[in-house]
Design goal:
Number of strands: 23
Oligomer: single chain
Number of helices: 19
Strand order of the largest sheet: 10-15-14-13-11-12
Low-confidence stretches: none
Structural class: alpha/beta
Shape: elongated
Helix content: 25-40%
Largest sheet: 6 strands, mixed
Strand content: 15-25%
Amino acid sequence: MLKIKRALISVSDKAGIVEFAKTLQSFGVEIISTGGTARALREAGVSVIEMSDYTGFPEMLDGRVKTLHPKIHGGLLSIRDNPSHMEQIQAHGIGLIDMVVVNLYPFEKTVARKDVIFAEAIENIDIGGPSMLRSAAKNYRFVAVVCDTKFYAALIAELKKNNGAVSDETLKSLAQEVFKLTSRYDGAISSFLTEKWRGSKDAGLPAGLPDSLSFSFNKAASLRYGENPHQKAALYKSVPARPDSLICAKQLHGKELSFNNYLDLNAAFSIVGDLKEPAACIIKHNNPTGVAEAKTLVKAFKDAWQTDSLSAFGGIVGLNRRVDAKTAKAILASGFMECVLAPSYESEALELLRPKKNMRLLEVVFNSERGYVELDLKKIDGGILVQEADIKGLNMSDLKVVTKRKPTKKELFSLLFAWKVVKHVKSNAIVLARAASTVGIGMGQTSRVDSVFMAIKRAGKRAKGSVLASDAFFPKADNIALAKKAGIAAIIQPGGSIADGEVIAAANRARIAMVFTGIRHFKH
């Protein structure tokens, strides 16, 4: 048990601090405090010693330096059962501090504001707070460290139970919480600066991926379960979170979202966010059942749904324009849909959709001009794989016509649309399209020819005259044979196979136009 005799209190979030300080005072604890915290406690009738009076040194540099002093850190870091330590602090007139109550400058909250300026963000990087917390946590056997208001109630109860003392188990638990907090706090700062300085010539950093990575996430919600009912799950928000991200979507209607809902919503967000014209997609099990662009949103939705209306049932709808009443009616007429994700909704559309209790409605900010590239992370046992996000576009100059027949303008338009879609489909991926609408999608097969067969089967008669996009090269000409039989007019693929000559020859015999991109879009 640690008997608390002297406490240092310095908090930016003053919720509950008066009650906590009064509890300490009731056990005769001497309280040292700073600036605004000292004023708040004194106004509430709590006796405090100002930090500058305790250290004999004034706050300076606009408050940047106020607790970075030997009388503070000596009092926190000295090991009580080490005679040498005790002799040194007595020689220098340093008193022991048994408890630190500190919460940090609100950096995360500050940088989450849209109107935050860089200088303000920098000033909200706490220096003294983390230093005191870390000193106290390092010396946890002799110092109780309180870094969050959520611990006040339990500590008040424990202090009252133990006549002003704290148990050894509580000391360990509180110290552990400090290092969780400071790790997250520093991660938030690092993430913020990385975003602000990414690509800066003045940053002086090596090109490529960094030698070490740190990330900061706060728990946003507990989920009912994970991919399956026997798996526990939760949602975590990156710090700082971008307002133009799925995690910041606003749910307007419907029951809570599931783990699988979030995965499918992310796929929908990525696809329609990649398309410039009014666009719609329907997602099932992290793959699109259909994607379309059109002059109107309702037309785009109907075209996307018709790609595979059977698989679309119970899917996730992604839309990149304000949902109007016509689109809402089309969604309702299509059968049950789990979620609708869009930038906004007309009031009449909401009136039509809200009676569906099991349909979740979400509003999200789309921003195709972020100006930086996020890292794509994939968890593996014992670590993570990291890569740049696949955002590489395709210019007309990148295309290489490799067959005798060139694609027509209409075919080229459809080929480019299909190419945008295929990068969002699980490999092996094949997309058949007419105009700016998918008509058949084959995905996730262990052989490319199976994906071609699946896409053609789903397209049925609509395969005739359509174009085909493949996320990777064709290893054999058997894919061309299937395309010829289905009446496919043109193909877009990366090229680069040792069988390219055979594949091109087969396309020439079939009078199928083919273009190479030199770019692959695997998605595992």
